[in-house]
Amino acid sequence: MKAVILAAGRGTRLRPLTEDKPKGMVEVAGKPILTHCFEQLAALDADEFVVVVGYRKQDIIEHYDDEFRDIPITYAHQREQKGLAHALLTVEDHIDDDFMLMLGDNIFDANLGDVVNRQQEDRADAAFLTEEVPYEEADRYGVCDTNDYGEITDVVEKPEDPPSNLVMTGFYTFTPAIFHACHLVQPSNRGEYEISEAIDLLIQSGRTIDAIRMDGWRVDVGYPEDRDRAERLLEGDGEPDAEGSEATAESD
Predict the structure, then answer these.
(1) H or E stretch including 231?
(2) Which terminus of the chain is more exposed, N or C, with fewer CB under 10 A?
């Protein structure tokens, strides 16, 4: 599969770490967040990286050029940060088959391969990694509801009254059907084109979407303290179930 990485955000919550670099170039345990993403996706046999860039895009392009460990890199430019569905549409012309999607500010030590295997073996229209969080924190995320078969029946972005405590993480697989759904998305109350809305449109059209429960940990590097926590986990000096940060939007 090709792997799409969203890395156009400004990283305003990560300041001062992002005062002179884009969020994806902030170092965690001695290397940029994007390098961690590329390594994880390479281990899943990605055959091409399609990277969505925006803020300080040249820093990313000059650092990685056109390949990473012999895997070619294609860049797509998101001129305005208007949400994840908007970012995803910038790569539509580069994708013609099932693909992986990773948010470029997440670091995982988890069962990502289970998501890819489910997509390939069951021919689902989408599959993604989910995790359970305390109910009082679920309203910070895209919240999922599932049926008895583990299929997602509803996705709500940052709901006031969450239907569950099962939330989306930053790793997905999709068929190209997601692009049609993204074209239909209307701006949310935040003024952004939410990927959760595109996923919900897929569900309403009768598509099958599987939820894979996370085994391991992930850190959404949204704040400086998240960078520090990710470093401790990578170095084996932290607790995987420690409280994480609020999920961040691509416009950040």
Answers:
(1) helix 224-234
(2) C
